[in-house]
Write a structure and sequence with these properties.
40% helix; alpha/beta; 20 strands; 17 helices; elongated; binds iron/sulfur cluster
Length: 523
């Protein structure tokens, strides 16, 4: 088990942390050391602490809050500590595993903020608080920078509980109650420090390649960005443009408004249809409303729509293999509702009722797992030997490649983490693919979603990402794991992708004009 030393400046802070750690399941390798108040004592104490050779260090104590949204008793996990007092060389030291600790604290029901912590040399007054906040810090203390500066590259985290805020300053009638609330939070948070220490250790990370954005997702995001650029905000988007919480949040910040139905779009507004496609009924509704939608439907989804129309026009019953309730299947089914039936699993084939058993066709959602879809195709062709369809070719290149890549890393990993949102079909299929390969796998929207318990004993971790997950999230996960000890990374490449899709005509023409204008202005 990792040896952890928890550094607490004051006696009361050390006592609160010890009490909390005593309540943890296994604290045998955790030591709480009182380091003394202020940067000079902290630096001196750290020399002795480091000499004792702990494998991991945590700084725990109270701090002053600098931003209006912090309340006394809130916890702050430092993503970086800046030496604002200049007592430890003036450096800014990062704490890469902060998201892992913060996520675990939140799951324990505690209120946590992450951000920059400033260490100062003397108690600061109100005006100095404001200056530190403007410089980007959310909390202030007097010991963390020298403690981290002496950590010698060991994994470190800084956990502070807020005892005073701009609304409740340090010297005020709230001083005592603020201190009590902060110490209570520290005590409640302390067991999570032991869990963090149990996850510490060097690791190998296998990166599945290809991973993250596919051509259809890149195109859909670009369409919203261009629509915002050309028309100005707001731009309405029917449904999530792609199934990823980070992408949606970033586009919302830029001025996109996501709605479930066209009825929520005001007359005359600009509206985009998502990458998952829409049924003809939605298009007709838009036309009736006089809206002029920009269509971000992935061309590979549009291809399946065209196949559905063709088979239905030729008198076939079309079995669509896919998941009920998914926007893509709803859109495709809408192409010929009277001639189509959704089939989720082999047993559903018995419920098909073709007018002519010789005229059965099948199609599928683009983001299915190939082996699952094949089982349904087998059930269809067994019951209807004349059934026709694309094999598993409707499953798009991006889904296929990512599933192959996740199989390749799962075979060599103790644990697979898949970056993606819970409503992302292709991301969920990646988790299932890794599990079918016999490896534990979890879906995470961000590094904060990684549970520390998953990591204990996992020395090789595979990381994959669904086609709608931004590549930056994989970088954040690798950085967070690196904060637990050294990480060596290996790209496991099963395919290279060069697919690109063009933009819709209306955006392309306007964008070409804009490029021309930019060139004219700059020449
Ligand atoms: S996952 Fe496949 S079908 Fe879906 S947007 Fe990407 S390329 Fe298109």
């Amino acid at each position: 088990m990792t040896t952890l030393t928890v550094c607490a400046p004051l006696r009361v802070e050390a006592r609160a942390l010890r009490r909390g750690l005593d309540a943890a399941q296994d604290t045998s390798e955790v030591r709480v050391v009182r380091t003394g108040y202020g940067p000079a004592r902290a630096a001196a104490a750290m020399e002795q602490i480091a000499a004792a050779g702990p494998e991991a260090l945590a700084v725990g104590g109270v701090a002053g809050g600098l931003t209006d949204d912090l309340r006394v008793g809130d916890l702050v996990v430092a993503t970086e500590v800046t030496d604002a007092g200049g007592t430890a060389g003036g450096a800014t030291i990062s704490c890469p595993s902060a998201p892992l600790l913060a996520g675990e604290l939140r799951r324990a029901g505690l209120t946590v903020r992450t951000g920059r912590l400033a260490t100062v040399a003397h108690l600061v007054r109100h005006g100095q608080h404001a200056a530190l906040a403007v410089a980007g810090a959310i909390a202030v203390d007097m010991e963390s920078a020298p403690l981290l500066a002496g950590a010698g590259g060991r994994p470190v985290v800084v956990l502070r509980a807020i005892s005073d805020t701009p609304a409740h300053p340090l010297v005020s009638p709230h001083t005592v109650t603020g201190g009590i609330a902060a110490l209570r939070s520290l005590r409640e948070a302390a067991p999570v420090l032991a869990r963090w220490a149990a996850a510490v250790g060097p690791r190998q990370v296998l990166l599945a390649s290809p991973r993250s954005f596919c051509a259809g997702v890149e195109r859909a995001i670009e369409i919203v960005e261009l629509a915002l650029e050309q028309h100005g905000p707001p731009v309405y988007v029917r449904k999530q443009i792609v199934h990823n919480a980070t992408v949606v949040a970033e586009l919302e910040q830029a001025g996109a408004i996501f709605v479930d139905e066209l009825s929520e779009v005001p007359d005359g507004a600009n509206v985009v249809f998502s990458a998952h496609g829409v049924s003809p009924e939605v298009r007709q509704d838009a036309a009736r409303r006089g809206l002029d939608p920009i269509d971000a439907t992935c061309p590979l989804v549009a291809k399946v729509h065209a196949e559905a129309r063709r088979y239905a026009a030729d008198g076939y019953l079309v079995a669509l293999i896919g998941h009920a309730g998914h926007e893509e299947t709803e859109g495709t089914m809408g192409e010929a509702p009277a001639s189509m039936a959704l089939v989720e699993k082999p047993e559903d084939v018995a419920g098909l009722q073709p007018a002519d058993p010789a005229k059965v066709a099948y199609l599928m959602q683009t983001t299915l797992a190939a082996d699952e879809a094949s089982a349904v195709v087998d059930a269809i062709t067994e019951r209807y030997p004349a059934a026709t369809g694309p094999g598993t070719a409707d499953i798009c290149y991006a889904t296929t490649n990512r599933q192959q890549a996740v199989r390749a890393i799962a075979a060599r990993s103790d644990l697979v983490l898949v970056a993606g949102s819970a409503n992302s079909s292709n991301s969920v299929r990646l988790v299932e693919t890794a599990e079918r390969a016999g490896t534990r796998a979890y879906l995470v929207d961000s590094a904060e979603d990684i549970q520390l318990g998953w990591l204990a004993g996992a020395s090789t971790i595979g990381i994959a990402a669904g086609a709608s997950a931004p590549p930056a999230i994989v970088g954040q996960i690798v950085a967070a794991l690196g904060g637990l000890g050294g990480v060596t990374t290996e790209e496991v490449v099963v395919a290279t992708e060069s697919v690109q899709f063009g933009l819709p005509k209306e955006l392309r023409q306007a964008d070409d004009r804009a490029v021309l204008t930019r060139k004219t202005v700059s020449s």
